[in-house]
Amino acid sequence: MTFTRETDHGTPAAIATGKSVTLTIDGQAITLPEGTSIMRAASLLGGSIPKLCATDSVESFGSCRLCLVEVEGRNGYPASCTTPVAEGMVVRTQTDRLKQLRRGVMELYISDHPLDCLTCGANGDCELQDQAGAVGLRDVRYGYDGATNMGQAKDQSNPYFDFDPSKCIVCSRCVRACDEVQGTFALTIEGMGFDSKVSASQGEGFLGSECVSCGACVQACPTASLIEKKVVEVGTPDRAVVTTCAYCGVGCTFRAEMRGEELVRMVPWKDGKANRGHSCVKGRFAWGYAQHQDRILNPMIRASIDEPWREVSWDEAIAHTASEFRRIQAKYGTRSIGGITSSRCTNEETFLVQKLIRQGFGNNNVDTCARVCHSPTGYGLSQTFGTSAGTQDFDSVMQSDVILVIGANPTDGHPVFASRMKRRLRQGARLIVMDPRRTDLVKSPHIEADHHLPLRPGTNVAMLTAMAHVIVTEKLYDEAFIRERCDWDEFADWAEFVSQPARSPEAIEPLTGVKADEVRAAARLYATGGNGAIYYGLGVTEHSQGSSTVMAIANLAMATGNVGREGVGVNPLRGQNNVQGACDMGSFPHEFSGYRHVSDTATRQLFERTWGVSLDAEPGLRIPNMLDAATDGTFKGLFVQGEDILQSDPNTHHVAAGLAAMECVVVQDLFLNETANYAHVFLPGSTFLEKDGTFTNAERRIQRVRKVMAPLNGYADWEIVQLVANAMGLRWTYDHPAQIMDEIAALTPTFAGVHYDRLEAEGSLQWPANDAAPDGTPTMHIDGFVRGKGKFVVTDYVPTDEKTGPRFPLLLTTGRILSHYNVGAQTRRTANTAWHPEDRLEIHPSDAENRGIKEGDWVALKSRAGETTLRAQVTERVAPGVVYTTFHHPETQANVITTDYSDWATNCPEYKVTAVQVMPSNGPSDWQLDYADQARMSRRIAPLEAAE
Amino acid sequence: MKIYVSRDMASVALGADAVAQAFADAGREVIRTGSRGLFSIEPLVEVETAQGRIGYGPVGPGDVAAVLDGSHANRLGPVDQHPFFAGQQRFTFARCGVIDPVSLTEYAAQDGWKGLEAARAMTPQAVVDAVKASGLRGRGGAGFPTGIKWQTVLDAPAGDKYIVCNADEGDSGTFADRMLMEGDPYCLIEGMAIAAHAVGARHGYIYIRSEYPFAIATMRLAIDHAAHLIAPFTLEVREGAGAYVCGEETALLDSIEGKRGQVRAKPPLPALKGLFGQPTVINNVLSLAAVPFILAEGAEAYAAVGFGRSRGTMPVQLAGNVRHGGLYEIGFGITLGELVNDVGGGTASGRPVRAVQVGGPLGAYFPPSMFHLPFDYEAFAAAGGLIGHAGITVFDDSVDMAHMARFAMEFCAAESCGKCTPCRIGSTRGVEIVDRIMAARPSISRRHPDESQDPESRNARLDDAALDADFRQHDGKGGYLGKALYSRAPSRIDTSLDAQTTLLRDLCDTMKYGSLCALGGFTPYPVLSALDYFPEDFGAPAPLKEAAE
To answer: B485 vs chain A: nearest CA distance in angstroms?
Structure first.
């Protein structure tokens, strides 16, 4: 396998106007869209005009002056990157005169560049080197005694890449990538003329600057000035495999660039339709956990959780697992065991786990982590629209005129999509942010929300209904759309309800704390500003009224006609790489794959025929029900693949009690996570680099995951599930995940057209992909709602039972940060800890001052459920009365604080609202110390007997 | 009896404030005006009499009595009839030096606002047509037809359009923009208001270099006073931050936008995508200030004056080693020799003129043998030079032209924005090459041609075959770049005069045809003209004609 770079056409494709022009380049005629650069046109013809400052991820700049061409009838030598094609133009790109000019420019470049090609990390992968060859430079006649920019100190502060100013050719590609692609504006050129230098923020090092380490600058750099440390260490790659990132629900595709068996770097794939060549610090750089020393590579078992682990063979571990489950079922009944599928694993693996449970365990006790994140999305959108998924693809945002972001912090949680959104906002789209915190989207370089509605946590439904009140009472709704696409009588009932004075922005102002005028203005903007798109996150779902909020959002979109075309829609930003897929694959206790209820006889019979067993028609237990049943003594065995419920689920004490009450907990994971402290069997998992499969991202896009190296633990996760299944007598014979996808396609109408050969050909498919939509479905509900008529649902605001009072006067809400991912099992085992070594409690200066708390002080955070300690960060990001923390670090265990209140429809926990008190503290609480002790004891691994 | 004393920055530098104060202390009514533009007679005091304004200059604060009784030795007679002024065609500078610059009454009394009134009675297209018919070309240096630029902006569909005045007058030896802004600010305001009417702009900016505090203050005051007259058009002054390159129109736009002043690639043209991405008229002070005359007196009146395709008048600025330095507004077509010798009176030092630089630090140097050149865009371009902003700097025979070539490169290096490679690196390399030439040339006083070659450096010529052999020992890795770099070891550089002069010409070629904007693109003009007309200063034989003398 040879290593080739992706083609770089030098400038981006022209914005489509429908018009095209024909011109001649070096004697060849070509017709292409107007606005295309001569450089791109020449590249599309297969030629290559020398270039250094041009790269097709950013707009043309015209600074390197290597790409000069001759245009008949024009004076001088225009730069081909900045000159658009014109009808009848005759261009020459390779003449003696041009060669002379290009050599002259290159000679200048090289007169200020180090002499260390042979020892340079980018040797062989350097555009300066390539272009020096392309222009035929043989001779540098400038002296060596003149001024140079060489010999400057390297900036090695970033853990993943180095900046060597001595090798910089000041092409500004990094600066432009930071501005245009990432939208952070962290880089600039400092100084003038010969002294021009790339500088991060105000001359700070990269780490100390505003840089978010997305890697766009490194990718854009044509020399070794910005280079991955790993390339310097390992060498340039010699092969590349395209695969899909295993972090968030954006689903970025990367080229995993390898040198032999070693991963050198992950480079965002330009043809990736989800990320369009961009990346974030996690996907681009934070994959070192895959080789981390904490990874468990051998299966382990123990009789009791207070014993040390004992390493065993795979055969023994699998046989033990099967016999324990069968023993428990024999003793406590068929429904006494269950399992949890993983949103980190592939569709195929998830499908197998739920199949193991339904076919092998003989019950429907399967649930997944979507329970604690987007289960209200599934419920709310299927009630109103008829499908459990977002309506758009990510490209859609580039057609939006008004963007409404509710309870989501995309610049931290979904950074690559946030960069697209910010690009659209810089083009002039308007922005409304509904969030208790002043997130980066509210105000950051060249971005400012038109309206920020900093509502009190827990008042989403009141707020959205008030916006509906404005839209209905001011007659801003789209009557034609509603009459054609929705049930008019249901709309009328809903309109009557939202029109009541009690739903007005003025009436709810005391509840939400947001000025009525601002709510009215925001509602008018959304209803009348053109294409209105709603993006929302867990700030919507993780509430006692999460499902109501999702339906309130759907109501707004239907009322304003903002569904069924590009640029509009309702878009949940899914948290995990494959949470959409895990839900699609039948991970819920009441649904088969494709969201078909287990009580539906026809569907059940289809599965029974294929699997050769009779299936339970009763929905199984949800995760909280499993834990309740465990403490009640009726649920005794659990198979957990790739999820850490102890850290991620609410009310840690309750989760621990449930797990402790079980007789066999099997954890399949990369690391001894917190849940594994309560496990009896540990089956080492494989990383996304070590297996084949597919992930489905937040836009329903199914993308290939490709094995780039052999599993360190010996098996891909799907193989381990198959071993367990066969040990339980199921006789599965899958040789490759492609066969599992064929079974999924055969059993799931929305996936009927999804096969690996099609994914190879198309790159990706968005479900539904079947005979009705052979090429998949980028935008849903175009001709009508999936359920038929769109359904307006009355959403009455019901305050949560979790209320502030004298003992717990503050509201805690939780979330994520850019550099870490969920429970942090992966990112804490990478250098991302450089940015966020611990969880901190954000507290408003006035609340902090009232309590005598200063920046960095240890504080105790206490709720009805529990207490923990962490350090304070005093900031006006949060409103007075609201505190905020992340849940990335087990030392903090933020979920000791959260309660077991949950969404009325789906049991999604109310993470986002907990009444708390904050007080100064001396350090970790007794509980934290005890927990740390217990975790240490629980992670002991007994020495191998053979070694004794 | 009113007394007129200039408040122009140059006059004040020569002591005009003390003179004005002395007359005021003597109980006289003193009117402060702009400058008439002849600095050898500043501080100039004009006394209002029945015969018109009688000038005295230079005058000191102790000369009040002598001026008032008419006995002062420097009595110049009626100012209008002074030969320096009588020969001019003052279309643009008609009021400069005559009126109180910020008096709306005096401006109106001297035909002020006539052009704007005429324009407002016309359709925008008719105004643009008039400017086209006048033949007015951009006075900032490029000479692009102003009317065509306005037409582009008029035709561009957009909600917001802007008028931007480039008052970042940075060329050495130029001061016309400053003089006009200090001496007749309403003329510029009127010109911008006409432009706004012509293209449909609602707001304008005047970008003035920070080194012009008087002009900034005067313009701000004048904008305040005239706001009601130009409404709904609004204007504001933006102060530069000291970068020469911000006089380049696209860098200027970036600077107004609050960005680093860096040149933009064109297209898109500012006329279509200029300030804040909107269609923008960006013109020099003198272009905009010529417009009121054109609208008031008619395009024909303006076009009637001039030479070839260069129509109307040009305010020529004489500076450097010249006896009568100052501003001289005259129709195109006057020869370079007439300007230097007849108007300017030769050098101030009294020594022979050796060179004049026309068009600022990026303009070509011409020897007296080129004094037949008519002042005309095309004629200068054909001679390898440019008119630029019409600044003429005079040098006598003591000038070292290699030093001046070095200065051109040094200026470019100091002022380069750093965006494009030929300018960013080339200008620094240019200084280094000229230094090598100056070190290698025979001393100018001796000028022995035999000493021009250093035998050691001759021996250091590149040997391609040896280089390739050396390079192959490094197993060829590193590609072309490594090879090129390998050639750069100090011992391999040919520092002979021949080689360095060839390199300097090659560098000028790269800069002239490769640079993104005129800063790097025009820096070769002074360098190449110095090399061509004064080779003896670079260690080469003098041109035949001079050698024969």
So the answer is: 6
DSSP reduced 3-state for A31 = strand
Classified as helix, coil or strand, A252 is coil
- The alpha carbon of residue A128 is apart from the nearest alpha carbon of chain B, in Å, by 7
The structure tokens listed for A772 are 């009705």
Residue A535, both tokens: 């993006």
Pairwise CB contact (< 8 Å): A112 & B425:
yes
Rounded Cα gap, residues B198 and B115, in angstroms: 12
Instruction: Count CA atoms closer than 13 A to B76's CA, side-chain side.
Output: 26
- Element of type H or E holding A625: helix A623-632
B487 → closest Cβ in A83, A139, A188 = A139
Residue A511 and residue A503 in contact, taking contact as beta carbons nearer than 8 Å? no
Res B488 pLDDT > 80: no
Angle (CA) A516 A520 A522, round 5°: 115
For chain B, say whether A62 makes contact (Cβ under 8 Å).
Answer: yes
Instruction: Return the residue of A nearest to B515 by Cα.
Output: A65
Interchain pair B416, A145: CB under 8 A:
no
Instruction: Among 3.40.630.30, 3.30.465.10, 1.20.1420.30, 3.40.228.10, name the CATH number for the domain at A383-572.
Output: 3.40.228.10
Among chain B residues, the shortest Cα distance to A121 is held by: B478
Mean pLDDT of A213-222: 97
> What is d(CA A238, CA A6) in angstroms, rounded to the nearest whole number?
14
Residues in chain B with CB shorter than 8 Å from the CB of A124 are 477, 479
- What's the complex ipTM? 0.90
CA distance A373 to A390: 14
Q: Are A303 and A680 in contact (CB under 8 A)?
A: yes
What confidence score (pLDDT) does residue B210 get?
95
| Cα–Cα separations (whole angstroms), residue B447 to B229, B441, B452, B545 | 65, 8, 9, 17
Closest B-chain CA to A197? B418
Is the CATH code 3.90.640.10 the one for domain A317-373+579-766?
Answer: no
**Single-letter residue type at A511:** L
Residues B347 and B350: their CA atoms lie apart, in Å, by: 5
Cβ–Cβ gap B432/A110 under 8 Å: no
- CATH for A161-291 is 3.30.70.20
Strand partners, B6: B33
Q: What is the dihedral of CA B394, B396, B401, B403, to 10 degrees?
A: -90
The answer to whether the beta carbons of residues A560 and A227 sit under 8 Å apart is no
Going by C-alpha positions, the residue among B55, B59, B37 that lies closest to residue B47 is B55
Q: Does A108 touch chain B (CB under 8 A)?
A: yes
- Using the beta-carbon criterion (under 8 Å), do A110 and B425 form an inter-chain contact? no
What predicted TM-score, i.e. pTM, was given to this entire model?
0.92
Q: Say which of A114, A129, A146 has its CB closest to residue B479.
A: A129
Span B69-100, pLDDT tens digits = 999 999 999 999 999 999 999 999 999 999 99
Find, in chain A, the residue whose alpha carbon is nearest to that of B496: A141
Q: Is B477 in Cβ contact with A123 (below 8 Å)?
A: yes
Q: Mind telling me how many Å the CA of B215 is from chain A's nearest CA? A: 27
Of B429, B436, B513, the CB nearest to A77: B513
Rounded to the nearest angstrom, the minimum Cα separation between B267 and chain A is 6
- In sign, the C-alpha dihedral spanning B266, B270, B271, B273 is positive
Whether A370 contacts A623, CB under 8 Å: no
How many C-alpha atoms does A629 have within 13 Å on its Cβ side? 20
- Domains in chain B, ordered, with CATH? 3-86 (3.40.30.10), 104-303 (3.40.50.11540), 306-399 (3.10.20.600), 402-460+495-548 (1.20.1440)
- pLDDT tens for residues B129-154? 999 999 999 999 889 999 999 999 99
Which residue, chain included where needed, has tokens 């859609």? A396
- Least CB-CB distance to B479: which of A82, A108, A133? A133
